[in-house]
Amino acid sequence: IKDLMGHPELGKKYSIDQAVILLIVRDLKSVYDFETIRPILTTVFNTITDRSDDVVSPLRFYEGYARVLDHVYRIKDYTLNESTLEKIVIEQTGQLRDFYKDLADPEWNKARDITAVTVLSVIASHIQATAHSMIDSVFLKYDMK
User: Fold this and answer.
1) Cα separation of 119 and 113, whole Å?
2) Distant-in-sequence contacts of 90-95, Cβ < 8 A, 24+ apart
3) What's the predicted TM-score (pTM) here?
4) Where are the domains of the chain?
């Protein structure tokens, strides 16, 4: 993914923004391949190696979707279904407008939409990891491995 991040900016170390891009890629790669991740990232970061043209900085974007995820994970409603979860993510992402108040509407729309996609990707990844963990337990329980 070096072409997505560029070379280390601080000697042999990555900058905070580059490290955050790595975290974002980690969150997306469990659901998408790199050919899909690239346009997702360029929608909000434009030229990946040039921070000056970002719609929003990687750190700020990461904080935005962390806020939405925090809200979702605090929900204790066990009757939640996929449709309701999607509506909650869309609603909570929309409430980030004040967080991104300096963005013009076209940029805000990009940040909002990519945030929702990223949050849903993280949730899907979490569900998949839980399913893998559960099947491993079942295999151990019934000596199926």
Assistant:
1) 10
2) 90/116, 92/67, 92/68, 92/119, 93/65, 93/68, 93/119
3) 0.85
4) 2-141
Written as one letter, the residue type at 138 is V
Containing 117, the helix (H) or strand (E) segment is: helix 105-141
Distance set, CA 107 to CA 30, 56, 66 (Å): 26, 8, 19
Cα–Cα dist 38/3, whole Å: 9
Which structure tokens are listed for 59? Answer: 């750190």
Question: Rounded to an integer, what distance in angstroms lies between the CA atom of residue 118 and that of residue 31?
Answer: 10
Q: Which residues contact 46 (CB under 8 A, 6 or more apart)?
A: 53, 54, 55
Give the pLDDT of the chain (145 residues) as one tens digit per residue.
Answer: 666 667 776 677 888 888 899 999 999 998 999 999 999 999 999 877 778 889 999 999 999 999 999 999 898 877 778 889 999 999 999 999 999 999 999 999 999 999 999 999 999 998 888 898 899 888 888 877 5
